[in-house]
Structures are given as C-alpha cells and as structure tokens.
Design goal:
Two copies of one chain form a homodimer. Chain A has 15 helices and 18 strands. Chain A is α/β, with parallel strands linked by helices. In chain A, strands 4-16-15-14-13 form a five-stranded parallel beta sheet. Chain A has a five-stranded parallel beta sheet with strand order 5-6-7-11-12. In chain A, strand 5, helix 1 and strand 6 form a beta-alpha-beta unit. Chain A has a single domain, classed as Queuine tRNA-ribosyltransferase-like (TIM Barrel, Alpha-Beta Barrel). The interface between A and B is large, with 38 and 38 residues.
Chain lengths: 372, 372
Amino acid sequence: MFEFTIEATSSAARTGTLVLPHGTIETPAFMPVGTQGTVRTLSPADLKSVGAQLVLANTYHLHVRPGEGVVQRLGGLHRFMGWDRPLLTDSGGFQVFSLEGSRRVDEDGVEFQSHVDGSRRHLTPERATEIQWTLGADIAMAFDHVVPGGADEATARDALERTLRWLERCAARHRELADGRQTLWPILQGGTHLGLREEGLRRIGDLASWTGLAIGGLSVGEPKPVMYQMLEGLEPRLPPAWPRYLMGVGFPEDLVAAVERGMDLFDCVAPTRNGRNGSAFTPDGPVNIRNAEHREDPRPLDATCDCETCGTFSRGYLRHLFVAEELLGLRLLSLHNVRFLIRLAREMGAATRAGTFPRWAAEWRRRYTRSD
Amino acid sequence: MFEFTIEATSSAARTGTLVLPHGTIETPAFMPVGTQGTVRTLSPADLKSVGAQLVLANTYHLHVRPGEGVVQRLGGLHRFMGWDRPLLTDSGGFQVFSLEGSRRVDEDGVEFQSHVDGSRRHLTPERATEIQWTLGADIAMAFDHVVPGGADEATARDALERTLRWLERCAARHRELADGRQTLWPILQGGTHLGLREEGLRRIGDLASWTGLAIGGLSVGEPKPVMYQMLEGLEPRLPPAWPRYLMGVGFPEDLVAAVERGMDLFDCVAPTRNGRNGSAFTPDGPVNIRNAEHREDPRPLDATCDCETCGTFSRGYLRHLFVAEELLGLRLLSLHNVRFLIRLAREMGAATRAGTFPRWAAEWRRRYTRSD
C-alpha cells in the first residue's frame, strides 16, 4: 500500500502509479478541490465522467462545518461525499494561516476563529491529525506553518522550524492512530529561500520513511519565476521514490511548468472558480464565454475536448447560460475546466512515456500562449 | 404525427401515448420547465436520467434573451438546449400578462417592456406563432389573454372572447408556416366561470380539428376546490381524443387530483424552485432538508426513489450542502423532485392500466398527507 512506481521519465518529467487504499492513480495527476466535501457544482458522477482519480477536501472547512464527528457518523468522508475513489485531506494549516487577524500561533498550535460562527477553535498538530484520521482520506497532510510568499528569511526559518517540530508530533499521533488505511505526508516549507528548503528536505528525510512529500508555501503570491527557481533547485535533491505534490497549483501553464520540473500531483480551485466566472481553459488559451463574440458561435468551447459540455453545447448556448445567470452554466464550465486539467496531466504522462516531454511542452506552450 | 392513443382508463383517469416529431411520450406526463432554455440546475443528461419525456420552454424569455433569431442560427431550440426529445413552448401570453404595470393590451396584441433591458416589445398572435415556429418546438401554444384567478365574469368573458379571436389568427399564421414538424394547441380560458369554460370549449372545437387542448387560467391564485370544480365540470365535455394539458400544475397532490379528473399533461416550476429552496417531495409529504433533524440522518431523501440523489447521498450530506450553500445541493434536490413527479405520473399510468386508479389515489393521498 502507498507504493509509488515510476514508469518513465523524460528530462525531469515523470509518470508513474501510486497505490492507495481506494484505488491506484496514475501520475502526473490533477486533484479537483472539494473544499466543503463537494467539488463546487460537480457531483461524484461528474467527477468520474471527467476522469478524476483523486479529490482533495479541506480539513479546516469540514471541521468547522459539519464537524468531523458528523462526517464520521455518516460513514466517513468517502461515504459522506459519495466518492469511492482516493481522497486527500489537507491539514488545515493553510486555511488557518489565511484567516486575517483572527488567529494566534504558539508552539502548541493555532487558535483561530471559525469563519462560520465566530467560535474560538484550537488546532494543534495532534488535533489536525486526529481530525483527518476521523475523516478517513487515503492521504493526510501534516499540520504546517505557512508564511506569505514574500516572507524574509528569519520569518521563513521560524515557520520551517515550527513545521518540522509539528511534523514530529503529527507523525507520532498518526502512528498511534493509523492502521494502514491512511498515510501521512510531510509538507516542505521554507518560503522562497532555497537554502531553507534544502535544509527542510534533508531534515524531513531524516525524521522517518515517508510515502510522499508535499511542497507547500509556493504559489502563494511570489512571482512565478521564483517558484520555478525553487522547484529547479529542489528537484535534483528530491528522493525519486516519493510522489511530489505541489500544493495549490494550478493553472494549465503552471501544471506544465511543474511537471517539467519533476512534480507529480497538483490541486487548485482554479478550474472550478474560473469556470464559475465564465472563464474556460482551451488549448489556445483561456476563453471568456461572456464575450459578445460567442453570441452566435456554434462551435464547442474546445473542439479537442471529450467532456459533456464540449460534446453537447455550443459556445452560443454557454454564453446564453452565463448572460441569463443560469446555474447550469457554472457547472458546465467547471466540468470542462476540470476535464481540461485532467487531460493535460494525462497528455503529459503520455509525452513522458514517449520520451518527448520537452518537445511536447514547447509545442503546448506555443499554442496555449499564442492567443493571449 | 401528433396522434394520441388512449390505452386505458380508470374512472376519469387516462393513460395513453402521444406521437410527436421528436419521440412518442406516455401520458400522464409531467414536463419539467426550462424557462430560459434550461431546466434550472439540470443538464439534458440529468433530465434523461430522471426519465423526462417532454420539456417546456418559455417563448417570452427566449424572445427577449437571446432572441429567437439567435436560437435559430444556433440550430433551433432542440440543438440549442442539447435536448433531442420533444419540446413544448408556451405562447408568452402568461408571462406578458404577469408583467406588472408595464403592458398595454389592445385587440392587435400586447405591448410590454422587456424585464431584461426595459425595451418596448410587441407580441401579437401572429408574432407569438412566428417566434414559436422559429424556436421549433414539437408543440406550440396559441397566444392567449390570461386573467387573474379571481376575475369577475365580465372580465373573464372579455379575455375569453379575445383569446378565441386570437386563436383564429394564431391558427391562420401557423397554417402558413407549419409543415408537419410542429402542432399548435389552443388554450381554453374562462376564469373560474364554468359556463364560460363550456362555451369556450365548444367554440374552440368548432374552429378547427386540434391535436390537443391546454387548459389555462387555472392554478393562478384561485382556491384549489374551485380548480377541481372547473375540471370536474369540464371533463365530461372534453373530446376524449385530445390530450389535455393542465398548465402550471403542479405539486404532487395537484397532479393526482388532476389525473383523477381526466388530465394528461402538466408543467410546473415547483420541483426545481422548491428543490432550490431545500424542499423535497417524498411519498410521506414534503421534507425541508435544512431542518436540524436531518443533520446526522444516514437515510436517503426518499427510500423508494431511484434517482442519483437518493441512490448516492444521505439526508445528512444533503443538509450539509444546503447549510454550506453549495450549489450541488440545489441540483440534487431539483433532480430528485423532477424524478418524483415523473415517477408519480408513471405510477398513475400503471394504476390506470390496472383499473385501480381511485383506490391507488386514495392510498397515495393517505400516505402523502399523513405527515403534514
């Protein structure tokens, strides 16, 4: 269980399989985000129809509403959501550190105010681990201290050290709880300071034998070249045997850039959030379906796409749904965008197996950015 | 084409088949309402999954946005909506007469203000017929003058006379246009005055040989016993060979009462509107899924139902979706409610074939109202 097998590489790009309790997934893979136990506007059947292998849910959100106890008594997160394939839960760290002005961090953990009812709550490494165990995802994440993209080295060092101490506590609690149905992954922090990231990576490796690694604290406001620089610096030092989950990424161009730099797993709300805003991914770059030019356009959103949206509806109809504020439009664009990223990940796997990833990436990028 | 065959009757209830250009439907049948060319929150695949045979779209709404010309250039209403089964369009009469204070009626037609952009528009019997022909539904409706449920006899007489004169103009224009791919149905008005209704019915029958009849101006605010009285008075006089479409009905108990009184076809926004409000139809009466009692309820919404919602999700999860304001909840309850009415219509057909409709209806009513 939790075995990761690399099947091919092409330059730094990798393709492989990861065995999880609820199924084996192929990497690279994009995880749709089901913040509150639902990928916004999409049903589990929709997610299967677009080939989702793994879904992420947010521990913070499910903890404050409906509460992990409710989820447990309703059969655990898989049963609750009606999703029988693999799940990953984040630790709540990112959300808690994103709460403006209403949190207090100390060595024990974080005190924060629920965004739902304003109640005071306390998350510690142990609690975050227990909540995730109760939810029952295939992969749980360690509770981490996240700093903004522009944090100076002292701040980033402080958060890294705390994240490492918390990782030990998460791992200890997880060892007490887990019975092989869930694995715990560490999160590498260190801001935009490569030296800190390298040190963090070394110390994580010294702590235990992990089944995967998440890279956190990127894609949080820093310039993109800085993120790429971090990944390029880290990549040669990452143990090949760990699947590498780049948290919070991303947009199509980010996925390509990250696989190019050796990453395997991704999550982001972009496909659903942008879909709800009327923005659709296409191989020729993003399309804003509200634009008047689509009014009588009989073509599908993306002629290369095999999703229900592209197989059934014209751009003209989709524009009508958005202009008329019909809820179906939000779902149809979300569905397409998720399918787009899942197909993109699969194409990258195929190009890697073919040993042609760099050429594929250059061609993909040329087409995608041409229309921008 | 447009042939209606009655297969069985049980008391006044009937079951039969109606042949339409895009397919043959079984009656009694409930039509989900796709006001703006989409049944709110549901895709065509969803509608097929719940067994929808026929969908209604609103001429007024599609005329003001995106305009019937756009629909036509995108391949007609079926192609536009991605719905290849039968469609019915209303005439716009009901909507235009519902516009508060911004319409002017004369013998020629109705001048009104678009709710979308405030522009002045003019609908006449001929225009309403042309717009519906351009949209291309299987069944078009004559342009009628609708009066409120409590209208006095003089007002109702005036509207009935105008509706009859307009019917002649609709029929004349439709004969010029139609080529067998669309039929036109008259709408019987007359308010809550049975004498007027009987006279209207006679005069409609004298005008032409119709393929069906709609009964309008009921379920518009009058007390329910009054509606039932109208239907009971009319039923013995209705030519059995016409399918009878009771417009704007309804709720489960209304469907049963109407089939009991010889009606065949129904449309209503209730299943989708109530679904979006968190109210679900069940054989034991309506359930408000927001209620705290459902918080940890592992049972489906309706244990007798075969829809995706009831087959996949617990009441606890559905409540969570509503409390957390997740869009998926709106769709899942809409889907179930539409399925509920479609199954109800099918059950009534089966009871009619079995010759046991009155007993079935009594039993259904006992269970449905017990929990109220």
